[in-house]
Amino acid sequence: MHIDDVLIEPSRLRLSGRHAVLEVSSPLPGVLRLRHAPVSSEVGFLHPELPGKRSWAVTADGARPLEVKRDAERVHVSAEGMSLEVDVETGTWRFRDAGGRELARSLGVHGEVKAAYPMSRHRSRLVLRAHPGERYLGFGEKVGPLDKRGMHFTFWNTDVMPHHPDTDPLYQSIPFFVGLREDVAWGFFLDESWRSEVDVARADGTQVTWESWGPELDCYLFVGPGPADVVRRYAALTGCPPLPPLWSLGAQQSRWGYESADDVRGVIQGYRQRGLPLDCVYLDIDYMDAYKVWTWDGARYPDPAGLVKEAAAQGVRVVPIVDPALKLEEGWALYEEARSRDYLVRYDRGGVLVGEVWPKPAVFPDLTRPEVQRWWGGLHRDFVELGIAGFWNDMNEPSCFAVQPDMGILTVTSQRAEGVGKVEGPTLPYDARHGDRRHLEVHNVYALGMAKGAFEALRELRPEARPFVLTRAGYAGIQRYAAVWTGDNSSHWAQLETSLAMLMGLGLAAVAFTGVDIPGFIGRANGELLVRWMQAGTFYPLMRNHAGKGTPPQEPWRYGEPYLTLAREALERRYRLLPTLYTLMHEASQTGIAPMRPLLMEAPGDADAVGAFDQFLFGQDLLVAPVVRPGQTKRLAWLPAGAWLEWPGLEGTGQVTEGGRYVIADGPLDTVPVWLRAGGAVALTQPALHTTDANWKHLEWHVHAAPEIRGRLYEDAGDGYGASRLTVLRGGLTDGVLRLERSDTGALARARSEETVRVYGLRSVKQVTGAREHRFEDGVLEVKVAADWTRLEVEP
Q: Which residues are in the Glycoside hydrolase family 31 N-terminal domain (predicted)?
């Protein structure tokens, strides 16, 4: 694009040529928006002025001031913490941080539009330079290792059953990545809901190429300097996840195949009789009457309210599945209402589109439109009044097994137009009509609209409780409304290993509340795989056992001993961790940083940390390296720089190892390798059969002594929006003397009179000041303190 005209406004720069436009703005500090329209003159009516655009993902609406200078060769744009140089002759640009370091460079922007029936064909491409050695992390729910360089991805939400370690596309489309070169990070987000693809230096090792099937490339660039800084800025742009209710962090049980209320009662009793923690049970599609959403099968579930109350008496919440497709049944009030209000997706030629999912025939509410989202949200009312605690959105890509033929009309050449009714994957045709938009444009945001409608309705219908929505499909910004699980996986060891990088990839896009089906949705796990998957799943933000109809049951007791005992230990470990997990979820609600983090979040300059995609950090201070291969009792793990305490049982007297090297960790079947970083302080509680509240009645601080110590604990009622308390632990080890100070903010009254502080890494203890009592044994100091303690001092 040769730049012919420059329009400078206080918070907007528009560069235009004969055919193309580049518009630059800054919505937030450290974030630049570059709106490329490579064929503006062919697709718009007011070229070079660009039409207004609605973003599904972006919530920040700031317009920060720009400083613009121009010389004969370049236009220079500066904003807070960054700058952009645009070449006048080519329209290419260079993105730099405040220190002048080049973070990203475009090599070209290209577009084409081809007139066709029933809609024109667009292709818009942006080519970025792939610097030698640069790593590309994230891309949301994608397969492969953490570094996606050398891979190619398609963003088109797809119902895949089962998926495999090389399957693409999957259910989520989040076109965002973090670039990492040496120890400096930057970010890129393509805010286009259209079908898109990215070639991550695969076809050409020197280029990253994005292609959208729409007429624009609406891009956001983020400065670092670290990966965590990039993620925080992305979350500030697209929204942080809300703090979920505590119960949703407990153990969850599901199965496609609990066919009656008695089955649900039986699984709850199975957990309780064996002393297994459980907080939630799901109802799959079998609870519906003839697969009609928002109905109950009266024979199999004759008293839903009674079932919900019985489960609640056992400390268990009930969460039903909700699919978007409506059964086309004449006289069914819900279908008739959606049709009469014109809320349904239509064929190109105008009739209501008819397909097949579980209901047959089926029609689809147009959940991309705000008025339909509000209507859909209102349909949750009857279920909420029954006491239903949350909702599970499935089949929302949207999935459609078949579309009834709609041949369209002939073109001016009396031939059937190419592309009429074209369907990619089990979904709706490209040319299906969603109001004034085509399915090709809004396919990837259909699930986002469904989740938004549910979340906002639950906030209104039950304002005293936090919504819980679980979704399979989504787009950038889905974290504002729903937790995400990775869909229909299989009971294979490779999928256990793959799950770690997938969840970390979602976390890098601020999708913090995530999990996978344990121990695989399809197939048959053996007892060893169940245990290993539960050990890893102890640290998933969402821990759910789920299986498919036609597969053997996979509840933890189905495998006998010793697996039942080991499964119970994993669940009890999960419940001990809840104070730390709840605190991390609160942190995510403030910053967008997920509990499950790649090692590089804390060690961006560590090349070995980037390659460690089968281990992760749980928060800042716990390093988890689960065993993910059959028959293994040891595994290789990378410890970043610093001292690390072996802590496989979340307590004990493990060895302290200096990091910056690989270690061989012991991992017999009853052990998941875990380390506590020097200076880390994490909070644990006692195991329980179910959650109650997050104002912990029993609390233990576990501290790995170091020159600098830090810890955090967030507490509240565990649900709702009332009083809270944030506790910060600080201190350090100086000249052999350990000093710890604790401070609180917030109005929540304490529910405990005493706390325990366990300190690891001390060689000797002579005197403890500020304690009620203490004991020093095997290198571990255990101190009992009053719940309102503020200072603790330990002398050697």
A: 22-199
Report the distance separating Cα 646 and Cα 632, nearest Å. 18
Q: Which of 134, 218, 441, 488 is catalytic?
A: 488
pLDDT at residue 199 above 90? yes
Q: Which among 394, 569, 621, 700 is annotated as catalytic?
A: 394
- pLDDT tens for 120-172 read 999 999 999 999 999 999 999 999 999 999 999 999 999 998 888 889 999 99
Catalytic entry in 147, 197, 218, 397: 397
User: What are the sequence ranges of the domains in the chain?
Assistant: 5-225, 247-322+372-395+440-591, 693-795
Would you tell me how many other CB atoms lie within 10 Å of the CB of residue 266? Answer: 13
Would you call 394 a catalytic residue per the annotation? yes
Contact 107, 92 (CB under 8 A): yes
As given in the structure block, the two tokens for residue 32 are 């630049």
Which tokens belong to 506? 């979602």
Burial class of residue 415 (count of CB atoms within 10 Å of its CB; 0-12, 13-18, 19+): exposed
For domain 5-225, give the CATH number: 2.60.40.1760
Q: Between vectors from CA 532 to CA 530 and to CA 533, what angle results, nearest 5°?
A: 65
pLDDT for the residue numbered 357: 97
pLDDT value at 16 more than 90: yes
Q: Read off the DSSP letter of residue 224.
A: -
Query: CATH says 693-795 is which class?
Result: mainly beta
Which CATH code for domain 247-322+372-395+440-591?
3.20.20.80
Q: Pick from 524, 432, 538, 619: which is nearest to 516 by CA? A: 538
Q: Is 199 tagged catalytic?
A: no
Write the CB contacts of 75 (distance below 8 Å, at least 6 apart in sequence). Answer: 3, 6, 13, 15, 68, 69, 85, 86, 88
Domain 5-225 matches domain 693-795 at the CATH topology level: yes
- Answer whether 620's CB lies under 8 Å from 626's CB: no
Strand ranges for 192-246 from DSSP E: 196-200, 207-212, 217-223
pLDDT surpassing 80 at residue 634: yes
pLDDT band at 391 (very low <50, low <70, confident <90, very high): very high
Q: Both tokens of residue 10?
A: 């206080």
Q: What is the mean pLDDT of residues 665-683?
A: 97
Tell me the average pLDDT of the chain.
96
What's the DSSP call for residue 247?
G
Side-chain-side CA neighbours of 522 within 13 Å: the count stands at 10
